[in-house]
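INFO worker-7 received task bundle
INFO bundle size: 2
INFO processing item 0
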Amino acid sequence: MSDLEQIAQRLDESRQSREFGPDDFDVDQYYEPSDVHLKVRIANDYIAEIIDDVVNPKTEQVASMPWQKSVHSFNYRPGEVTLYAGSNGGGKSMITGQVALGLIKQGQKICIASFEMKPKRTLFRMMRQFAGEDITRPRYMDKERYIGNIAQRFNDFCGMNLWLYDQQGTTSAMQVIAMARYCAVELGVTHVFIDSLMKCVSGEDDYNAQKAFVDAITALARDHNIHVHLIHHIRKLANEEMMPNKNDIKGTGAIADQVDNVLLMWRNKKKEHDAQQGKMVDIKTPDAMLMCEKQRNGEAEEWYHLWYHKDSQQFIENPDSVPMSFDNGGRF
């Protein structure tokens, strides 16, 4: 049995209580909102709410990315959809796993629906990011004790705030929408990650289906006051060292138009290639950039320079930064 299989086996018991599949809920029941009668209200119903809003203004409950440099310029707001777009192997799933850990640290409840990666693999990579090092090669103790300690810390950290939807391969838009609504209504999930859009819509050139799916997801996020994180691909560029822009997002332009936020993930392939060839590279040059190309309800559209920490598979803030701690460096 490989190291990965041994680690995954140790997580099975705690994972099973937070994992569900397409047979665990009624797709038809959750595909359409069932509370239409609650949405039609007489104007008088809102008066007391308006008075309360004016007298006792409430601070918007937002969440942030895990990097300090982005805290004051970008927020994940309830009722919105954020699109992450990038090339194949560009780090989209990796960086959203780190984002999910940061959200759990802020007390948010997460569901990850990856149609490209099994839940065990998703958890393994998140455990590695959580540990801040390569968990297959412990430095300070025997592997079995080390993995047991990391698994216990990870499980304590996640509690009931991390759920996984166990469905790989192509699915249907109807099933994904039902899954997201089930998470919001039955599980109290506040952030749903969907990886990826093209697995939810059959046909890369079916622009109407893409538009309809994103429209349904944005309506669902708004109706249930959750945040949806949607992962997508960009078109193949002339070469992999090129930096993409919003117009390179694959499919219909309505995708970027409909969502609230657009983040482009770019890996510095030139730097990687130069390093592989033994050339001198400037460590101050970022390994990756998360480029905010749209933030409908925010004031900033910034590009966040990041550096890749290979052992932890985290993206860190500066070339000399250490991996971030999600449980304040829990002790064994």
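INFO item 0 finished
INFO processing item 1
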Amino acid sequence: MPFRRIAVVRGVSKLLIVAVAAALLAAGIVACGGGGDSGSSTTGAASQGQASGDTSSNAKTAKSGGDEGSGSGTGKSGDTGGSSSGSGGEGESSGKSASDFVPKHHNDSGGGSAQYKVKGGDNSVQEYGEEADTSELDAAGAALHNFLDARAEGNWDAACQYMSEEMIKSFEKLAEASKQVDASSCGALLRGLTNPAAKASMKTEAEKTDVGSLRTEGDRSFLIYTVGGKTIYAMPMKNENGAWKVSGLTGTPLN
């Protein structure tokens, strides 16, 4: 395997570790903080692991969504038509059912990953796989926007529709390790792994996310976007039965 290819694989593997770290951090909030301390980190932030790959004590928190301004362009988001994965869908965790969620229109700037390359930085995600075409970018962007919008509304069951099966399964494993998390449905799990203090940041993230690139390789990809125009984020995505789903609680900062 060429050296460059090895470097890309290592860089992407590190980002996947970070995505797992975000989920572990969220579980830690529930287990240690009783599910709602306003001083705790929230799911509106990505837990960025160190080079060693430690996903617990050696994690640092990076802010998600405080920048000013938002991008606009030609991309559109809408209902991806996904059905709820796992056991969610009853609406029992929040009083809202998935059918209550109405996808919103979002304008995304697009433009490809070249605009997000960091001079002298690790651009393994920006150069991962190949740049997807506009239709794939729009579909993946819609899944992310719908996930963020549903989560911001507190419609956990609807948010579950846009999550990958592997992410839901990871939630179930986290629930097994914490008796404080309701595992009766995917929506209940997502609600239990979300700090209530994150409501404002989740709303800001949902409103200001601007998607610019989708780098794909097989059924996996990274959606690259900004929240307010400054910090660059990458969200791991998974294509399941022709529909893109998010594979992380939050995006990971790339700059």
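INFO item 1 finished
INFO post-check item 1: Residues 3-253 form one domain.
INFO post-check item 1: The chain has one domain: 3-253.
INFO worker-7 idle
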